[in-house]
Amino acid sequence: MSAVADTAPPGAADARIARAPWVLSAPALMLFVGVLLIPLAMTVMLSFHDWGQYKGIEPVFILKNWHEIATDPYYAEMFWRTFRIAILTTLLTALLGAPEAYILNRMSGRWKSFFLLVILGPLLISVVARTLGWALLFGGNNGLVNKLLMSAGLIRAPIPFMFTETGMVIALAHVMMPFMVLSVWAALQRLDPQIENAAMSLGAGPITTIRRIIMPQIMPGVLSGAIIVFSLSASAFATPAIIGGRRLKVAATLAYDEFLNTLNWPLGAAVATLLLVALVLIVVGSNALIERRYAEVFR
Amino acid sequence: MRRNGPLALIFHTVFVIVMVAPILVVCLVAFTPEGFLSLPTNGFSLRWFRTIANYPEFIHAFWVSLGLGALSSLVALLFAVPAALAIARYRFRGRDALAALFLSPLMIPHVVLGIAFLRFFTSAGLGGSFAALIIAHVIIVFPFALRLTLAAATGMDLSVEMAAVSLGAGGWTLFRRVTLPLILPGVISGWALAFIQSFDDLTMTVFLAAPGTETLPVRMFLYIQDNIDPLVTSVSACVIAITMTALILLDRFYGLDRVLAGKGDTGR
């Protein structure tokens, strides 16, 4: 902000301008190095330490935890479950969220902002409260959802939702839905409504218009929404812990157990490090793919 | 622009009902007059809201959450406002890397952050302390504080500052009398959004909180792990009411779509 406030000689002023942004961001930079980068590095190091029931954590360099994760099929199954749930949640949000964003975008002014508030608002409401809502709706064999589905004649026997992956995916999709709607919504804002009109004036029916005109243009929005939903679902904690219960573990709940119940911190740190690395690779990789495939949209 | 057909409106109605249902059911069950989980079909009662008073740990957790949210958002702004001005005003080497670093808490899973902070603060002798919670929350709410301040600083008319400088204002006066008032809406909205994020965080805080420093989401989570009864629905209903109030204020004051629009890009 002092860029224009210089009365010193030109050379000195240049030096001051060059220094100014670093002076301004120095406190935040020091904070981030001190209490974000160092703790993260410590966690990666922790995953190479030894641990025993009685000796606790031993600061040595061994691959014991990584070897255990690589060889014990329990961890492979747990990570596969984590990513399976994340993929299904992502598909569900994309299949329902994208059409909803499109419908929302075609509403008139006042209704549009009202429903946008209703759909995006839950994003800021406590995840614990929202998941509690699903636990109440699922609630055993005679929960509200099952009663409703049975009285509508859609199912004959109650579906178990609590402590199952089905229930986890539904509750997670509800928690993540605003991110998808928001992302597709943003893509729709960049879209020129005249193109849709042009397609129709050239004789395209509504389905052709959606498939050939709308879909290709909102696809980047769907995909970037999918990346957000996937990475948040794969590392979700509250919903899998409440809906999945103590047996159906995912990466985040397993790491929590290792840290606060078993107290095997090095093993928990290894699980967390693996989750972080896997997510960073997937997110960076798919971002690069999307940007290459849809380069013209981001230009 | 064409209108939505009947099929689209049916889809929309079902979609909205499903989005609202879990939140609505929590609020309804909170008003049950019965001693067990049920919808209030025999009239409404406030008994479960009164019961909260018998659980001082919930009240205490509420104050912890409130203080933590308010303080950590404020501290985050003290760091974020100068950083936002640097990123908004100057083109310098390392600018993109700096911005990426400051937004990185959005990309790192909170469970990983929780573990990293638990390890870090335990070895620093601060395990389970309120100070550790504040520092950890400053990091996770920082991106929200930064992003809204950045938006305000980028959209600011620089000629106003130049006019002030030509009239002899410098350094601190310029910031306090001209720059800050102009970016204030962004700063306040950044504080509010940061507060909500801090107030709602469970995943990271559950690793750091000890008895005495448990926040409300942590207390609720630990309670739900043992059993689900109408008490936790009435506590949830209060939390929802607080968030809704903040949400409506934020919408009136700044526009919710603008606040959330930034959030949609977290993955990029």
TrEMBL record, chain A:
One of its GO terms (biological process) is transmembrane transport. InterPro entries: MetI-like, MetI-like_sf. The chain crosses the membrane at residues 26-48, 83-102, 114-137, 168-188, 221-243, 263-290. Keywords: Cell membrane, Membrane, Transmembrane, Transmembrane helix, Transport. It is found in: Cell membrane. Residues 79-286 form the ABC transmembrane type-1 domain. It comes from the Bacteria. PROSITE patterns: ABC_TM1 (PS50928). GO terms for cellular component: plasma membrane. It is a multi-pass membrane protein. The keyword Membrane applies. Belongs to the binding-protein-dependent transport system permease family. CysTW subfamily. PANTHER family: ABC TRANSPORTER PERMEASE PROTEIN, INNER MEMBRANE ABC TRANSPORTER PERMEASE PROTEIN YDCU-RELATED-RELATED. This is ABC transporter permease. It comes from Bradyrhizobium niftali.
TrEMBL record, chain B:
Belongs to the binding-protein-dependent transport system permease family. Coiled coil: none annotated. Residues 62-250 form the ABC transmembrane type-1 domain. SUPFAM superfamilies: MetI-like. It is a multi-pass membrane protein. One of its GO terms (cellular component) is plasma membrane. The keyword Lyase does not apply. It comes from the Bacteria. It is found in: Cell inner membrane; Cell membrane. InterPro entries: MetI-like, MetI-like_sf. The chain crosses the membrane at residues 7-31, 58-85, 97-118, 124-146, 231-250. Pfam families: BPD_transp_1. One of its GO terms (biological process) is transmembrane transport. This is ABC transporter permease. Keywords: Cell inner membrane, Cell membrane, Membrane, Transmembrane, Transmembrane helix, Transport.
